[in-house]
From TrEMBL:
PANTHER family in the record: N-ACETYLNEURAMINATE SYNTHASE, PSEUDAMINIC ACID SYNTHASE
NCBIfam families, per the entry: PseI
The AFP-like domain, residue ranges: 291-347
InterPro entries from the UniProt entry: AFP_Neu5c_C_sf (IPR036732), Aldolase_TIM (IPR013785), PseI-like (IPR051690), PseI/NeuA/B-like_N (IPR013132), Pseudaminic_synth_PseI (IPR020030), SAF (IPR013974), SAF_AFP_Neu5Ac (IPR006190), SAF_PseI/NeuA/NeuB (IPR057736)
Ranges that cross the membrane: none
Pfam families referenced in this protein's UniProt entry, alphabetically: NeuB, SAF
SUPFAM superfamilies found in the cross-reference section: AFP III-like domain, Aldolase
SMART domains named in the record: SAF
Protein name, as recorded: Pseudaminic acid synthase
Source organism per UniProt: Thiohalocapsa halophila
Native organism taxonomy: Bacteria, Pseudomonadati, Pseudomonadota, Gammaproteobacteria, Chromatiales
Cited PROSITE patterns: AFP_LIKE
């Protein structure tokens, strides 16, 4: 499959997405700087989130609409207030996408309701991301799938039955290109809750590309995911965690993003195929293997012994497996020390 002109699959380096989310801190200038930093870090795409506080929730600040979990990064906010702080104003989308285009980096978004899809279609975004919290919103899935564009779907919290329903719905509505991202919907996530071994199963079960939407710290999970077949890696991205922001605590800084791009590509390159024997690159090293050599000057007719015959480097003589069978046999000619042993030298 392709996103715009970028191929996605195991025959290609991983597609790395920098998720801006709310890390612009309500500054368009900062949002544009994030795009520039993502491009400079060699990320392949920058992703936005398209919603308003009113399309996400109700303006209620009590009960289940208030975040009272002291372990949450967003403790003390109502949902409406949080989304008001975190949302990307819709009139920013066009300049952000334009800056990305100028810098040669793909840009797309996560729509959170049908009005967001209509808006993003006007901007002709190349694909769509579905967030974990919306992966069971089948009306939204149908709306996005009907565009015919690729869909990247995070799988956080979803059961196999729910994912099956989501994928079937997307395909029935017209989406042929789907990427399922293994995701742990905690912020930040821990490595022990990442369960990356799910990736090959996810690919086999749904017959689509798979990847990782990663909320852990560092690049380790992303590199490991590539080893398990991930072709897309998504990480939240910020200019500086120290400057704060709704998602900054689990977001990557530019140097880390650059390392992620480099190391996931190296991991992909290292996978290669199933191979035994020397590679073309290894063949020059074959001469440094051990082999059998004459270790002392000997005369024709003398017997080969452990004193005058040794297994050493380099590798131009007979293979070490023949050593015992040579011991006790007479040589057919004078052999100086350093002679690579050959069958023609024994009687």
């Amino acid at each position: 499959m392709h996103i715009a002109n970028r191929p996605i699959g195991r025959d290609h380096a991983p597609f790395v997405i920098a998720e801006m989310s709310g890390n612009h801190n309500q500054s368009l200038e900062r949002a544009l700087e994030i795009v520039e930093a993502a491009a400079a870090s060699s990320a392949h795409a920058i992703k936005l989130q398209t919603y308003t506080a009113d399309t996400m929730t109700l303006p209620v600040a009590t009960g289940e609409f208030f975040i009272d979990d002291e372990r949450s990064l967003w403790h003390g906010h109502s949902l409406h207030d949080l989304y008001q702080i975190a949302h990307t104003p819709w009139d920013w989308h066009e300049p952000i996408l334009e800056r990305a285009k100028q810098l040669g980096i793909l840009a797309f978004s996560t729509p959170f309701d049908e009005t967001a899809v209509d808006f993003l279609e006007e901007l002709d975004t190349p694909c769509y991301k579905i967030a974990s919290f919306e992966n069971a919103d089948l009306p939204l899935i149908r709306k996005v799938a009907a565009t015919g564009k690729p869909m990247i779907i995070s799988t956080g919290m979803a059961s196999i039955a729910e994912l099956d329903e989501t994928v079937r719905t997307a395909r029935a509505a017209g989406c042929n290109d789907i990427v399922l991202l293994k995701c742990t919907s905690t912020y930040p996530a821990t490595p022990e809750n990442s369960n990356l071994n799910t990736l090959p199963h996810l690919r086999d079960l749904f017959g689509c590309e798979v990847g990782l939407s990663d909320h852990t710290h560092g690049i380790g999970a992303g590199v490991a995911a590539v080893a398990l077949g991930a072709t897309v890696i998504e990480k939240h991205f910020t200019l500086s965690r120290a400057e704060g922001g709704v998602d900054s605590a689990f977001s990557m800084e530019p140097a880390e993003m650059a390392a992620l791009v480099t190391e996931t590509e190296r991991a992909w390159q290292a996978l290669g195929g199933i191979h035994y024997g020397p590679t073309e690159a290894e063949k020059p090293s074959m001469r440094f293997r051990r082999s059998i050599y004459i270790a002392k000057d000997i005369k024709a007719g003398e017997l080969l012994t452990r004193d005058n015959l040794r297994v050493i480097r380099p590798g131009y003589g007979l293979a070490p497996k023949h050593y015992e069978s040579l011991l006790g046999r007479p040589v057919s000619r004078d052999l100086p020390m350093g002679t690579a042993m050959a069958w023609e030298f024994v009687g």
